[in-house]
Every structure is written in structure tokens, then in C-alpha cells.
Amino acid sequence: MYLSYWKLNEKPFENSPDPKFLYYSPQHEEGLARLIYVVREGKGAGLLTGTYGCGKTLLGNALYQELEKDIYRVAFLTNPRLDSVEMLRMIIHFLGGTNIPQRKSDILISLEEILKSNLRDGKKTVIVIDEAHAIEENSVFEEIRLLLNFQIENRFLLTLLILGQPELKNKIDSIKQLTQRIAMRYHLESLNQEETSSYIKHRLKIAGNDGDIFEDQTFNLIYERSGGIPRRINQICDIGLLTGMTHQLQKINVNIMKEAIETLER
Fold it and tell me: Cα torsion for 163, 164, 170, 172, to the nearest 10°?
């Protein structure tokens, strides 16, 4: 609606996890580097936590883009509210399995065959479980732990990456056998004030605008109201662009941003 007005090629503040818009703050760069390290070195399991809206899923998608498609087979689970059998069946599905069995014992045999087949073909298997904090059944976490029992000559047949909100850490730590196999842990914090400003400018540039749509004073306000959480920054800036257009402004000032934010907080 406001793209032509602000001379943008696409919406800069959508909350879909598009790696093209990933802003590499120092911690996001570090987080991605650690995920890549765990996968490339076959470390077994990695844990990435962070507040809601801080970019965990986006980092997961960025990792997927980084991995060579002719080498890595990736199962990316985004709906963790499954029982243990459903989760295993979904993993097989995303790894390209067909005619998936119904019985759990047969499912495990099928999964092991896929993992061994990938290994024979020179492929590496990666399983990403996003929003894992939403897992309710302990049996699912136990099944996640047992996935790491798929080994040949002390070599993991898969790499497991578990992503979720901060409370996930306590759930993982309550399962001693699982936490012992977590080779990497990293926690994403919200952006600081300077990073918030850079984040906004970065997304506008990717969307096709090299100018200064937001006056400098607005960045402090956006940071204060968003807490530096990217998802919230996106919501505020999106409504700010719309409000600025309706007022026919050339630049968005603090007063307009306050008006825009009030519409979100009513």
C-alpha cells in the first residue's frame, strides 16, 4: 500500500523469517557461526534460545541457505506440538521418505535406513526443531535424545539443532542425558539502541530505499517502545510507514511515530 509512496521495491518490515533481510548484529553473526560450526563438524546437538521475536527462526533459515544442498539433507520442523511418533514421521517426510510406517518400531527402522543411506551417499543429515519450548510431552524430549543414539563408530548419523524461547533451557537441562550431548549453546538477546537504528536502515536498504525515511530522533523512540526486539521493531516501523504516508510526509518524525505506536497499543 505504501511501497510506491516511499519508493520501495518490497515491504521492509514483514515478520516472515526471510534470510535476505537478516541483519548481522554481532550476536546474530556469532549465533549463525556457531550453528554452522555444529553442523559442519558433526557435533551432535546445538541449542539456540532467545526471547520471542529475536530472530531464532531467521537464523535457522539463514543456516539452511548456507548449507550446500548437494551435501546436506535437512528436516526443518516448525510445529513441535506433536507426539513422539508424529514427530518421527514428520522427520522422515522432510528427509524425503515415502510410505512412512505407522508402528513406532518400523518408523525407527525406516529413519535409520535413511540416515545410513545418506551417509553412504556422502550426505549429512540435519534435523532442526524450531519453537521447541512449545513441546509439552516429556516423551517427545526423550525421543529427541534418542535420535542422538543413531551412530556408527562413535560418529553421529545426524546433527540436531533445537531452537526456542528461554524456558527451553530449563526443559533441556531437566533431561541429563540430553543436556550432556548439547555441544553448543547460544542465547540471543534483544538489540541495543545503536543496533536498532542500524537494523531499521538495513531493512529499508534491502527493500530498495537508500534515503532517510525516519528522522534520527525517531530511532530512540522506536528502541524504547520495542525493547530492541526485531519482531516488535518491524511492527512499529510498518505502521509508521503507513501513518507517514497518510500524512503525506517526506520524512517520519517523532510525533508521527508516537501516533503510529499508539494505534498498536490501544
Answer: -30
Within the chain, which residue ranges are assigned CATH 1.10.8.60? 192-265
CATH of domain 192-265: 1.10.8.60
164: which 3 cell numbers? Answer: 526456542
Question: How does pLDDT run across 197-228, given as a tens digit for each residue?
Answer: 999 999 999 999 987 899 999 999 999 999 99
- Name the 3-class secondary structure at 119: helix
- Residue keyed to cell 511492527: 235
Q: What is the mean pLDDT of each run of 10 residues along the chain (266 residues)?
A: 94 96 97 98 96 96 96 94 92 94 95 97 97 92 93 95 96 91 96 98 95 94 98 97 96 96 88
What is the tens place of the pLDDT at every residue in 43-86?
999 999 999 999 999 999 999 999 999 999 999 999 888 899 99
Residue 76's φ and ψ, nearest 5 degrees, are -110, 105
- CATH 3.40.50.300 boundaries in the chain: 26-188
164 DSSP β-pair partners: 49
Q: Which CATH architecture has domain 26-188?
A: 3-Layer(aba) Sandwich (3.40)
Contacts 24+ apart (CB under 8 A), 210-214: 211/7, 212/251, 213/6, 213/241, 213/244, 213/251, 213/252, 214/240, 214/251, 214/252, 214/257
